[in-house]
Fold:
Amino acid sequence: MSVTNRRHRFRPYALSLALLCAAFYTTGRAEEQTTGQSADQQAQRLLASRCSVCHSTDLVQQQRLPRDRWEATVSKMVHWGAQLDKEEEALLTAYLANYFHPEAGPVVEWPTIPLSGEEPGSALKQAGIATRGATIYQQNCLPCHGEAGKGGMGPKLSRNPILTQADRFRETVVKGRGAMPPWGSVLQAQEIADLHAWLSTLPE
Amino acid sequence: MTDRNGLLISRRSLLAHAVGGLAFALTANRLRAATAPLETEPGAHEANSLLTRVARPLDAETPPQAFTAWLTPNDRFFVRSHFGPPAPELVAPAAWRLHLAGLVERPLSLSLDDLRRFDEVTITAVLQCSGNGRAFYRPKTPGVQWERGAVGNAQWTGVRLRDVLDRAGVRPPARHLQMGGADRPAVSDTPLFLRSIPIEKALHPDTILAYRMNGEPLPLLHGAPVRLIAPGWMADSCVKWLTDLTLQAEEAQGYYMQTAYRYPSRPVGPGDAIAQQDLKPVEAMVVNSLIAHPQQGATLSRGHVMIQGLAWTGEGRIVTVEVSTDEGRTWEAAKLVGDDVPYAWRQWQFLWRTGGPGSRTILSRATDDRGQVQPMASPWNPGGFLWNGVDQVQVQVREA
Structure:
């Protein structure tokens, strides 16, 4: 199948799915499976949230590898600390082998997820729910910002002044800052609000 | 067209170059290095840029137009990162220490000032990523898809590693020197970048602990405050942000020495199983050359064109560089120019009469004093290391 065909087939599909997701999204990974996110979209979220903890995804996009090499690579990354469960590992491997294979051209186009955190009306109108924020933090932020937001490779977040400016906090998460990658294609507005709520409960 | 095999490979690699150039134009981000001087004229920004392959941790290559200079400027010197630079406070000169331990009489902890008290030496040497040219292997191999610019030539100033090891007193069972840097992975399960070199290379008088690069303090991206320079060897032995030297009987353990940066000692094909004992560490560079002018895709007026380039090898010397402008059917000797300095690259020139208008391919092929000659395409290997296929650029000749 040619890249062009893929693009034409997937793009409108991805867009309508994204709209569906925006409409029905609640939170958490279990729900992702049932809100109709395509496997591609789920894989992209994994790339942005789990792989980019250590490296930008341009490294992934320049590879052209057969399935067995992708299996070996993703498995190596899990061994090295990439936070993927078995199901996620299989999903991601399938996506990579499907798009970034030896016969793919020099420029591969793939359906992209809109920056959901930037959708109109996504400002923190909803109250964040701290208990959900804790889980989101574990899955996305902990490798760099440390246990309980105490800092690590990334800055300490507990009692960080940015927590007093919710809009700036949201913008930093969505767009990234310095070494921090953008999370706008990974975290929904509600999830960012939940994160903010949880981080705000942390002691010094 | 008589050399069918050569022509076939030539066309295939040409396609790789052309295709790579397209990908470049469409996807490459351009990085202004932190050390770049202020722009003084239009276009200076472009000229001071590196071509980013991976944004984080940074892997970026030198744009080909920078290779008309013998010394590659620091702000245009390729950057390869496994984890990215350590936090600046960890390598601040006041806090930094170099620890020597393992099979030594006297473990040492040296400050930068301590290190500077040894005799200072300066060596001009090529530094090249083992994966330079990986993008040209078919089938593709995993890793950063470097094209032609993961190489540079710089003046490295520092002290002889041998002098420092003598101070510590190497004990006889020591056969390898393990090197560790201050850089750390984002996730603790990721193996550290631990490398080792055999004791003979460590004690070689030209192997240095470098703290200056082209006369400037070693930049952070290049390993500040101190990195190893093992002249003639690939850069995977030239550990940056050095903090720990350990003398030991065996090679460094772990992924980056035992799995990565290894090369099969016999020919292999894609998918072949290779026994661990048949994989040897990547060490010395192989003979190589690069066409610096004209550039890939250039349009030239019919007439005389001075082709310029560079040639280098591992621990030997370049003896000839040949140029072909008929897709490898015939080769003519280029003129070696500039200084012949051990470990540095050699500049060369070739005056070419273009002939009539049309598309032309320029090939360059170097030979060293050990009889190594660049092949049309390097033997495939699973890591995509040591590419040294003849260099080539395609140009358009038009009526003057």
